[in-house]
Amino acid sequence: MNDDRFEYLQTLVTEFQDTDCDEAKEQVLANLANFAYDPKNMEYLRELQVTDLFLDMLTEENENFVEFGMGGLCNLSMDPECRDIILQSSGISLVTNCLSKQREETVLSAITTLINLTTPTSRSQTTQPGILQCMLRFSLAESTRLRNLAAVFLQDCCSPEQVRAAEQQMQGQQMAVGIPLPKD
To answer: Residue 170: pLDDT band by 50, 70, 90 thresholds?
Structure first.
């Protein structure tokens, strides 16, 4: 059965690479993202370099590609070896860029991925002031899922000192009313 599983996943990756049809690519990405949820598939997905495929999707203009790529990466980031691949591939900045996407599913996957990517070694990158300020804004969102997940990030990945510093920075920015903030 295991060889069948590998062959099937390989067929999906090949289909993704060979087709020019966006709809077919979306379907394959959604399937791969779902397969990334099962630990039995991790070794095969690593061998097929699906982590890199998902990372590549994060910079696509097609929002479905981004959503499925981010969802797949979120699932893969639970596996320590895949997490290391993501961290070594500048994944933190690619994932962080997805925090500003319009689709809530994409943002939720990005937050969860950042939580999964936070290790003693990567913590300084995953808890940069900009990310913390973003999480503080999300913690005030109308969406319960977004609010709760941001709260988990702030509680599990950040020190109370980091959170206080980010809150103070945000208050400082709000004090500068009338002064346009730089667009970056």
So the answer is: confident
